[in-house]
Amino acid sequence: MALNVLVYSDDRNTRLALGRRPAADLDELQYLECATAPAVVKALDAHAKGTRRLDLLVLDGEATPEGGMGLCRQLKDEIYGCPPVLVLIGRPQDSWLAVWSRADAAIAAPVDPAALAEAAITLLRTDHRHLVG
Q: What is the pTM of this model?
């Protein structure tokens, strides 16, 4: 069964950096790309209702007009069982904002594909039902 990753970012390289299968012990990744915050909220509502499973959210903290960190905090406050969230922050000094947002992990720009993949793999492995085998 594929892992569903929601990506809220105006940078397509975010999805490309993770690829289809970032680790041999994880299922293949499928992406839902959202261009707006309301689209993210709609997808999370479907997740909460059980009509669409999401395994990881990758939110761009620098997205406009609504940044991923404020959106992360909203989702963590409003969605019961919110999936793990990885936020992309503009600079390392913004890590306190990632903590404020209640993100499960944060990666600073410029995004290193290896660091992004490592953080995503760690969050995806927290739920062992998605391991292959």
A: 0.91
